[in-house]
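Reading group handout, session on sequence-to-structure problems. Before we discuss, look at one worked example. The prompt was deliberately terse, the way you'd type it at a terminal:

> structure Transcriptional regulator of anaerobic genes (FNR/CRP family)

The input record follows.
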Amino acid sequence: MEAAVNGYFPHLRSLLQSSKKVIPLRKHSFLFQEGMPANELYLILSGKVQVSKICPDGKEMCFRICGSGEIVGELTLFTNDARYLLTAKVIEPGEAAVINKEELEQQLLINPPLTLEYMLWISKHVRRTQTKFRDLIMHGKKGALYSTLIRLCNSYGVPLEDGSIFIDVTLKNQDLANFCGTTRESVNRMLNALKQEGIISMKRGKITVHDLNYLKTEIQCEDCPADICCIE
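And the output record:
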């Protein structure tokens, strides 16, 4: 989503890029975890970070995967006793630029274009989260899986000559289960049903969607813009 950051948030991205603090991202380490004080905002320079929520029953619900150019932080950054509500785990090593919330707050006070961009960024995150919860609440596990497949097509899809979409990212069934907030066994059953119906096919951990319209129809897709309906 680097193009989105360049196109819609140039002031915010520029501020983060000018930060003197750059940290290494080591695989399996954390930028932050649930409950920690929310003090910083991050710009992923390279590598990938998975943002997720650990449910009370121990299940992990993944919200998005952030790559180069993506901003990672919290909507609660400026609330009283701000705490991170989600966990950001490094799944591919790289680097991130970091800005402290006090410095960001000072810049927001004197830079109206930056303030507007920050508001737009928050608004986009809220809209992304709302659409994901809508699919989960209205259509349950099936809605969550179908929505995830559609989002993967928007984020990593490669159109093929026959009209199918090849999702060019390797995901284990447990990874899909984390996106859906359900069990690997449930995802296995739903994927097998889709394969039997010819809606998808799988090879070496990668999925090809042969009938995207079927998935959209099943969850009454509202055809949100790709920058909203995405994994990143």
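Points for discussion. First: The first strand starts at residue 21 and ends at 25. Second: The first helix runs from residue 2 to 8.
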